[in-house]
Amino acid sequence: MSQKISLTRYLVEQQRVDGLIPAQLRLLIEVVARACKGISQAVNKGALGGVLGSAESENVQGEMQKKLDIIANEVLIEANEWGGHLAAMASEEMEGIYVVPNRYPQGEYLLLFDPLDGSSNIDVNVSIGTIFSVLKKPEGHPGVTEQDFLQPGHRQVAAGYCIYGPQTTLVLTVGDGVAMFTLDREQGSFVLTQENVQIPEDTKEFAINMSNMRHWDAPVRRYIDECLAGKEGPRGKDFNMRWVASMVADVHRILTRGGIFLYPWDKREPEKPGKLRLMYEANPMGWLVEQAGGAATNGMQRILDVQPQKLHERVSVILGSRNEVERVTGYHKGT
Ligand code: AHG
Ligand code: MN
Ligand code: MN
After folding, report:
1. Closest ligand 1 atom to the C-alpha of 209?
2. Residue 200 falls within a domain, yes or no?
3. Which of 12, 84, 117, 335 could form a disulfide with 105 if both were Cys (CB 3.0 to 4.6 A apart)?
4. CA nearest neighbour of 21 among 114, 156, 139
5. Is any atom of ligand 1 closer than 6 Å to the C-beta of 114?
């Protein structure tokens, strides 16, 4: 019988291979995974745990917060602040950075998260998740500021998400491919269920919120029009469409069977580069997708090369099967 590999064992082995991950980073990932187990518990209880519905408050993005947005944020902070592995955290649900309090030792890492992705799906019992990104605190000065977080995505040292769906699955990269771990509730541990995840280069499945079609720019319109034209159109094949409205769920499908995901800039709020947030949505997902052989751009450049100007910066996102992403990005050239 083949032996089950727990997340702990996987990380210990990663640490041994050329010291791929230092001990502090290993601890950090374990702590994030433990927090995700806690969030998964709360999500599973749903109405029985009194966790559904609105919190009647707004976050810094001007979005109404759900109770679970706030619960998940608190679980992540409480789990991570005392271990000595972090200098500071940043979250979709907090305006400024959260510096580890003085009573705890300060570590060398910075953790960013979207504590609860897919908030509109909480109350309707559809898959949601937690997205996280880890950076190293720049050296050479004491303390930590928001400026320390403003590093491009290619500087991430770990990234992943945990999806709370029919199964709870943690998906992780530390720069050595993508691995998936399914939560074994009886054992209380994440078990390795897929290694070396690979996204097929081609696909017949796209994910975009079609209700925004009239607001899109020409390149995105052209791409989707061509997909919709099917066999008789320029692409010569029929496409299928999916839109879960939880980025974690759409990306999870793409990592599993391929596809392309777009949340492009549109004319509704032209001053905003997009809806999704660069530092705790697009960067971690972009890196996972690249590590699985796919691509992620904002139409103009690789997402991971975008230099953030602010913590809650937004970005246009096109990611998934490499050939499709390159095609849409190509349509943007010269526009
Ligand atoms: P969040 O719940 O963290 O605010 O993120 C929601 C995001 C993303 O998960 C999803 O792809 C997108 O918003 C859905 O947006 P629409 O409702 O505009 O389709
Ligand atoms: Mn989100
Ligand atoms: Mn969120």
Report:
1. 19
2. no
3. 84
4. 156
5. yes
Tell me the whole-structure pTM to 2 decimals.
0.97
Residue among 263, 253, 260, 243 at smallest CA distance from 295? 260
The pLDDT of residue 238: 98
Nearest ligand 1 atom to the CA of 114 is 3
215 C-alpha to ligand 3 centroid (Å): 24
Domain boundary, last residue among 194, 222, 241: 194
> In this structure, what token pair is assigned to residue 195?
């290694």
48 and 115 housed in the same domain: yes
Is 228 contained in some domain? yes
Mean pLDDT by 10 residues, the chain (335 residues): 89 89 96 98 95 91 92 98 97 97 96 98 97 97 96 98 98 97 97 98 98 98 98 98 98 98 96 97 99 98 98 98 98 89
Say how many Å lie between the CA of residue 140 and the centre of ligand 3.
33
Output the CA 312–ligand 3 centroid distance in Å.
12
39 belongs to a structural domain: yes
Q: Is residue 187 part of a domain?
A: yes
CA dist 15 and 129 (Å) reads 26
- Partners of residue 169 on adjacent β-strands: 163, 182
- Residue 17 pLDDT: 85
Instruction: Output DSSP code: residue 256.
Output: H
Question: What is the structure's pLDDT at 60?
Answer: 85
Tally of structural domains, the chain: 2
Whether residues 243 and 283 fall in one domain: yes
> 219 CB contacts (<8 Å, ≥6 apart)?
299, 328, 331, 332, 335
245 lines ligand 1 (CB under 6 A): yes
pLDDT of residue 154: 98
Q: Which domain holds residue 282?
A: 205-333
Spacing, Cα 103 to ligand 2 middle (Å): 31
